[in-house]
Every structure is written in C-alpha cells, then in structure tokens.
Amino acid sequence: MHRSRIGIVLVDHPAESYDEAAGFWAAARGSERRGDASDPDDPYEALDAIGGGIKLELQRTGSGTPARIHLDIEADDVAAEIARVVGLGARVVDHHEDWAVLADPGGLLFCVVPVQTGADFAAHATTWD
Amino acid sequence: MHRSRIGIVLVDHPAESYDEAAGFWAAARGSERRGDASDPDDPYEALDAIGGGIKLELQRTGSGTPARIHLDIEADDVAAEIARVVGLGARVVDHHEDWAVLADPGGLLFCVVPVQTGADFAAHATTWD
C-alpha cells in the first residue's frame, strides 16, 4: 500500500530565456523569487503554492532545450509508484537514485519523486492497494 | 481591481495518442473518465481536481501537434488580466471572444480564461489593484 498525488507543477525554461521567464511567472503569480536557479546542482526555484499545497516551481534546463511544463507525482514509495504507472502504460526514461523521469503513452514527460509537500501530501494523496 | 489564479492544468495530446494518454492519466490519477473529447467543439475532458479545486483537464489537440502541458489562468476580468500579464512581458498569440492564448517571454503557451472553479477561485485567487 502506498500513496501518491500530483504535487508539483514545474515550468522549465532553457538558460537563454530562464531569467526573463522566471521573472514573468513570479510577477504573474504575485510571488517573491527566492533564488536564481543558476547553480547547476540546484536548477530549481520555488514560487508560492497554487492551492492544496501544490508547488509551482521554475527549472532552468539545458541550453537549447524547449520551454515546457511538466508534472511531478510525489509518492511515499517511489519504487511502488513507478511500478504502478509503468503498469498503466508509462515508460521509464531516466532512473535516478530516488526519483525517475517517465513518459506517458503519448511521450509526455513527467517525474515520480519523493514527498515534498508535507502535510498537504497526506491531505490530498490517493492510497493505492 | 480584479482577481486571478492558476486554476486549470491541461494535458494536451494530439488525436493520435489522445485516447491512450487520456486513459493513462485517468488511471494514474485514480479518476473516472467523464467523456471522450472526440467532439471537435468540446475537445476537453475533466478529471478530478488535484487540490485547492485546481482542475486537471485533458485536451485532444490537432493531428500532428506535440504533446504538452499548459496552464490556464482564470480571472474574474479576463481583459484586465490579459492587460496585466502583457504588461509583465507576455504576448497575445490568439485572442478569442472571452479568452486568449498567450506566450510567456520564453515562448511557453498559456491561456487566460473566465473563472471556472467557482468557490475555489475566490478562496485561492490573488487580488490585483
């Protein structure tokens, strides 16, 4: 038995447009910027949650990559969640130590990651047998 | 004075992969499917909200278009919200009667639409002067 939910919405922009786009989304959201995502080991920048504790994050992606949005499914058992969604038709694209990038049946990328939203996760997660 | 918030997360797939992808996201979300989005006048299919009343919707897009996710900003004054985000650096791509497609400074598409989440909108919207 494990739990999961769609917990993070990530707005990904390559280095070329990141700073301008990050400034835009922070202002559009009415949120303070709390970093600049320029550290290659931590290319993320969190804005205020958008409801139900769902995180809105900006990611600085590699030069020349397309701007896009992807979803993170957070799970209290990442391996079990990966197995569940693979059983539903997803495929693993890139498996990291404790998280993975997957593609849905139409090739759309998403991630399965550990729980990041604390009490909001428990309040909104679905339990799978 | 008007209010807005990020209210809808849309998963867009072209006709070629729509049905398989829609089935995947419904199962991944643990949500019933409530339509098939095959009506060209209504290519949307709603899944259960993902928290804070934020809607998760599937959209069947045109043949050959890329799979993608886009965000809808809902607003109680669409024209005022469009003017606000254009002032922050967005550009209007396609202006419909009561909603618009825009691009952020990095070319990422999003929409500004009328309020669709009822009481959840009022609970989570930001007020702009």
Question: Can you characterise this structure?
Answer:
The structure is a homodimer of 129-residue chains. Chain A is an alpha+beta fold and 129 residues long. In chain A, 24% of the residues lie in helices and 39% in strands. In chain A, strands 1, 2, 3, 4, 5, 6, 7 and 8 form an 8-stranded mixed beta sheet that branches. The longest helix of chain A is centred in the first third of the chain and has 15 residues. Chain A starts with a strand and ends with a strand. In chain A, 41% of the residues are buried. Chains A and B meet through strand 1, helix 1 and strand 4 of A and strand 1, helix 1 and strand 4 of B.
Quick description:
By secondary structure, chain A is α+β, with helices and mostly antiparallel strands.
